[in-house]
Structures are given as C-alpha cells and as structure tokens.
Amino acid sequence: MSTFDALLGRIAGRSILVVGDLMLDHFVYGCVTRISPEAPVPVVQFDREEYRLGGAANVASNIVALGGRAQAVGVTGADSEAARLLSELQALGVDTTGIVSDPSRCTTRKLRVVTTRNQQVARIDYERDAEIDGAIEDAVVASVVEHARTADAVLVSDYLKGVISRSVARACVKEAERRGIPVLVDPKVPHIDYYKGATVITPNHHEAESITNLRIRTADEARTAAARVRSRARCQSVLITRGEHGMWLLAADGETDLPAEALEVSDVTGAGDTVIAALALGLAAGASLPDAAHLANRAAGVVVGKFGPATVNADEIRASRSDSIRR
Q1: Catalytic site residue from 273, 291, 315, 323
Q2: Please, where are the H alpha helices in 155-218?
Q3: In a 10 Å sphere around its CB, with 0-12 CB exposed, 13-18 middle and 19+ buried, how is residue 318 labelled?
Q4: pLDDT per residue over 18-41, tens digit each?
Q5: Alpha carbon of residue 232 to chain centroid
Q6: How do residues 226-237 score in pLDDT, each as one tens digit?
Q7: Contact between 152 and 162 (Cβ < 8 Å)
Q8: pLDDT for the residue numbered 105
C-alpha cells in the first residue's frame, strides 16, 4: 500500500470541528429560449430546483464524504431554511448540537437561477452579514470550547457572513493550542488580523494578492506572497490555492509547489471547502503538512469537475490518480 493510500485510510473516523458561516445553496433550473419583452433579460422557464449545503456546511459535508466525522458550530436564523439546513446536516451524520439559533437573523441562502446547461443567469443572496455579538457570540464561543474537547482538528470557515468575530477566532486558536491539535483557517481579507496563531491559512490567489498588494502569476511571486501573508497573519503556514496553477505551500520547515491535478474543470464553486476539509483530515490523521496538502490538491482536482458546491470521496481520489496516470 502506498503512503498516499495509507493516509486515505487513516483519515477515516477523524473528528473535525468546523466553525463558520453555514449556508444553503438553492438552485433553480430552467430553460432559456427568449428575451423578456419587459426588459433585456432572459426568460427562464422553470424545470426543477434543488438545495445543497454551502459555506461551512459544505466543508462539514466534505469531511463526512472523505470518511471523517464533523461537528458544526455556527449560527442560523429561526426559519424554514434553518430547519432544512439542520436536517440535511443531520442526515449526513454531522453533529449539529453546537449550532446557535438567532431569531434576529435569516439563515444565509444563495439562490442561483441556472439554465439546463449549467449557465448562471442570476443570483440572489439572503443574508445578514453583521458580526455576531452579545449573547449569540458568547453562545458560539461556548460551543467552540465544548466541542473542541473531542476534536482532532479545528477548522475555521470564514465567509464574512458574521459568525467569525475576533472573539470566536481567538477561541478557536486558544482551544486548539490547549489540546495540541491543528487549527486551519479558510480566510477572508478583512479578517486577516483575526487568525494569529493558526497552524495554516488557505487564501486563494485573489485573497493573497489583496492581503499583500502583490500580483501572483508565477511560482516566485507566489513564494513572495506566501511569506508576506504569513508575516501579516502571524500564522505558522500558508497554502495559496492558485486555480489552474495548483497550490503553493509555505510550511514552517520548507516550501512546496503543487501543480494542478484537475483533469476537467466544470465549476470551481466550493473547491476551497474541499481543499481545507481534506487538509484538516490529513493533519488530524498525523500527516505532514506537505502530504496533507498533496491530498487536498488531489481532492480539489476531482471536485472542480462537478457543478456547484460538491463533495469528493476517497474512492474518487484513488480513481483520479489512476486516470491521471493513464492519460
């Protein structure tokens, strides 16, 4: 058995605490055959609709699909969307006892109108993105403290929808340090100062450019940007995801350039969720950061071949390696 296959086996059953912005992705599909006489917009004839887990909920879904266990901490509204989101998470086996209900907020939902050829026509966001505070923030921090006790890693999924306040981020890092487990962050630029002490943060190249005011087009530019991101965030390591150019890893003990492994790209929506889920499971299973990043890179190569927020499992990762060898 290869080292890679052994790692895929070891991630089974590892428990990841996912803290962040839980969302529903709502897709309305239809056929476009004409332009409206009322305005220069396409008329979409309804065909079907579906809901998928998004944001931190998609991260939790990816963890379960890869064979791990997920505990979710976040905030929902007290609405029908919250009931649907909780039901879908529970159906996957995700522990939802750490999710806090806030009647003053709506559950974050992204409604996309999509043609039957998977072309997006419009998107409507239902959200309240003000940072949580007061009793709701206290309840989220308490959930982090409680659930970190049984986690093998803490994962922060920050989508700027209000859940990741400075106090929540600090609690995630503090509790991970207390237990000696890794804490990973999928960051957003305005919160870069929240992540001090994180084991690794995973900005995409656009976010890394915004943080550093550098253009990233080459491996050398990625190397420079990663060092500046690490200095600015005061974290241990940085993994910059670079789309078709792969990933650049700056770890505490060295650097790794990971070429892209996608065989076919359909949609990059939610790919960052898959990356950090696989990375967290790899570290939780005792892998080195470069080996965990290799797993995350392979998982990303599979998931971008699917439409919308999606998951990938261990068998698909194994099969993708065989496909890349044959091609």
Answers
A1: 273
A2: 166-179, 205-212
A3: middle
A4: 999 999 999 999 999 999 999 999
A5: 22
A6: 999 999 999 999
A7: no
A8: 97
Which of the 8 DSSP states describes residue 189? G
**Angle, CA of 220, 247 and 1, to the nearest 5°:** 130
pTM score, two decimals? Answer: 0.92
Task: Give every residue of the chain whose pLDDT is below 70, as ranges.
Answer: 1-3, 262-270, 307-310, 321-327
The full length of the chain comes to 327
Report DSSP letters for 93-119, one per residue: T-B-TTPEE-TTSPPEEEEEEEETTS-
Q: Is 193 a catalytic residue?
A: no
Within 10 angstroms of residue 319's Cβ, the number of other Cβ atoms is 12
CATH 3.40.367.20 holds for 3-326: no
Tokens 């998928």 map to which residue? 52
Buried b (16+ CB within 10 A) or exposed e, 112-132: bbbbeeeeeeeeeebbeeebb
